[in-house]
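Researcher: Good morning. I'm working through a list of sequences from a screen, and I'd like to move beyond sequence-only analysis. For each chain I'm collecting a predicted structure so we can compare shapes side by side. This is the next one on the list. No need for commentary yet; just the structure.
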Amino acid sequence: MARQTDFIAPSILSADFARLGEEVDNVLTSGADIVHFDVMDNHYVPNLTIGPLVCDALRSHGVTAEIDVHLMVEPVDRIIPDFAKAGATYITFHPEASKHVDRTLGMIRELGCKSGLVFNPATPLSQLEYVMDKVDMILLMSVNPGFGGQGFIPSSLTKLAQARKMIDESGFDIRLEIDGGVKANNIKEIKEAGADTFVAGSAIFGAKNADDTNIYDTILGEFRSELAAAKV
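Model: Good morning. Structure tokens for this chain:
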């Protein structure tokens, strides 16, 4: 199957929440594709972030781009309907956080969303063998989940190649997303390893000029140039 177009998904975890609608508008206007939500519960991961009300607020604000909700919560089944109702496009979760992975994936699709599994750096990909037909997105964490601004774990490149092989051999239309430490100086090799969807938080929302104005056009342009130079 031919590789899909590269998607850049800024994580709003690193945005200015005092003006979140404006931040999301600006980053999409500058060339981003997907709005990435990092949902943390201070249980599955040691941090507490945002819930479905923020997703609903962005839809009410006028955001029409795909919203990619990454649930770092346990258990997951209770909160999934709330995000579906709030306007999520993708809902991904960690297999460790569900007692019945197949059932949870099915629930997400039944609610009209695209489903996905998330794998921490030390979590094997073996569970994918049984649910490839129910997965629209595979998200590989290239940092340990819970906090933004961490450095990319190099072994994630090997895991990306493994996941890409599984996707290509399956014949299914599945996006391969990477999250953690993605920057302009490594996004090319990350694409070459197999990713087609790239989450970046601090690398995008933290990019500013000397006068403290955002330079989304510049950093997203750098990302696109590096992606275009990748050999795949």
